[in-house]
Amino acid sequence: MKYTSNPHFALDSSRLIYGCMRITGDNSSDDRQKGKLAIRTAIDEGYNHFDHADIYGGGACESLFGELLKESPELREKMIITSKAGIRPRVSPTDYAPTRYDFSQRYILDSVEASLTRLGIEQLDMFLLHRPDFLMDAHEVAETFAKLKASGKVKAFGVSNFSHSQVELLRSVLPMPLVANQVEINIHNVDVFNNGVLDQCQQHGIMPIAWCPLGGVAYSAWGNTFSVADEQRIENELNQQAEKYQCQPWQVILAWLMCHPVGIMPIVGSTNPTRIADAKAALLLNYSREDWYRLFEARNGESVP
Ligand SMILES: NC(=O)c1ccc[n+]([C@@H]2O[C@H](COP(=O)([O-])OP(=O)(O)OC[C@H]3O[C@@H](n4cnc5c(N)ncnc54)[C@H](OP(=O)(O)O)[C@@H]3O)[C@@H](O)[C@H]2O)c1
């Protein structure tokens, strides 16, 4: 494993973050066991940064992680634990209130408290606002973050799925730095390479974290618009590069993300122990600029101008 230092964490963060969104599967006893094995494998393989959200498994993912920490409390101090809140799902199909985003102070403070209880810990190493609330009051968020910091419940703060201007707005009122922007980056969704988000990360030392890094190729991305011909062209290029680098096609995609000088940190979401371990091979590829553009061209179906 490789590690990245960040002054806002007590530990250097593993370059590959382990994503806990899938660790409870269908919440059957078998899937929960599989999830615990996945976490233990990640730990054994050197991952020390774990990504959660209050809504993963409806809270069950944080609870399962909390169970594991209760079994092995010594693990806590060797970990960076991130969680998110701000998406407020509709409770039942007949509920008057729809799924909505909610950055109101009461909701965020209660959500953090609930995450800490489920995880069985005193402090989140990092808290992220999950998706931009269309009704966000940046000053209220600043006050909420200040309270969470003062109470010791959160060490560092960041955002997820925020645009360049939404980050700028928060940065202008927050009494602390924004440490991360967790955004979708994969072969299907390449928006951040050209919408200012990665430039902003590079400019201000914000950690760019990539969710669903394999979306669009290893499995269907959200809102996938690739045609069969697109997929074939991308697969051909990936296969050629995998042969060149003596690795598997999905490892090429991780290397493609990580070769960007901003230092993208992919979140590995597999619950398959072999894939969790094998993802690390991507850290060793000496991936070239020419191959980055070849894959970009295959993805776009045309050369850059
Ligand atoms: N901030 C946000 O809005 C947001 C949104 C979504 C996710 N996230 C975070 O990002 C993390 C990662 O997302 P993700 O789970 O979508 O990541 P991912 O690592 O891109 O995808 C994992 C999924 O792809 C499958 N997979 C991986 N390699 C494969 C292969 N070679 N062939 C076929 N299937 C393959 C895995 O199945 P196996 O388990 O069988 O390997 C698993 O279902 C989540 O855990 C969560 O922490 C954040």
TrEMBL record:
It comes from the Bacteria. Residues 15-295 form the NADP-dependent oxidoreductase domain. This is Oxidoreductase.
